[in-house]
Amino acid sequence: MLTILYLTTGLIAVLSLAGWVIYRFFPGVLVRSLQSMAAYRSGLKRRSVNVDGYESHFFEGGAGKSDTLILLHGLGDDKNSFVSTVSRLTRFYRVVLPDLAAHGENALEEGRNYSIRGQVDFVDGLLTALKADRFTIGGNSMGGHVAAAYAYRHPDKVGGLVLINATGTQQTDESVYLYYPDVVDREYFDSILANVFANEPSMPDVVVNYMIRELQPKIKFLNALVAEVENGEDFRMNEKAEEIKAPTLLLWGREDPVVPIAYAEIYHEKIPNSELTIMENAGHSPQFEIPQVLQQEIARFLRASLS
After folding, report:
1. In terms of Cα–Cα distance, which of 300, 186, 196, 187 is closest to 249?
2. What is the pLDDT of residues 195-241, one digit of tens each?
3. Helix or strand or coil: residue 207?
4. What domains appear along the chain, each with residue ranges and CATH number?
């Protein structure tokens, strides 16, 4: 018994030291491990499928269930965005969380169409490969923009639409999409957090520095992508939203300085069969701040729209 206790204590000490080393010198390993653990707990598996020569990565859970929910992340984000939001939805629905083209594990290939219309076509190719014929689709920020354009382009496939602090509508000619500076420093990173969160999280320097290192090489490409979005098809959804037929749930964090509630009201006014819910204690990306509230609202909408 003492021998087992001794060995266990020694193992804990070794693991603690290993954890500190990983945290201090290899934060990317820690981040990816935590993401994988969260996906596992939400009943999701990492998958990929080749779509017209482009390897497309996604999370999928609840396979075999008849009703399908697709959720799309925003600009510069990835498929991990909605993992916590769908933690219980995978018990009742087939859930697919894709990486958009040039995001997450999907390659940044020159020459592809990264406009909103281009992303719509990419998502359609992926869902066709997954044999998803009719589903509820939604997304946050640019992901919501893509979802709205998808509902406009493929009304026969969309049974419901969920827009979460989504871009796509315009009050003026000025775009709400933001360009990155040439060099990202801690001050700019903190400003991103201030724009995304109503209550900024406390993040260790080692993790922030890792995220900055990951972002820096992508800036030129991401800025080119924003320009392509702004100059491409389906950038302005004001008029096209009037033709969206699917029942639509608009979920908006009240404290969003990027896409304020006024933009939600445009969607609400234009989409004939829509409802708007304003969520407290949340900013631009409520899936990170209040995932359980978001999950409850989506579950309520799915029960009503699929009944």
Report:
1. 300
2. 899 988 887 888 888 889 989 999 999 999 999 999 999 999 999 99
3. helix
4. 42-306 (3.40.50.1820)
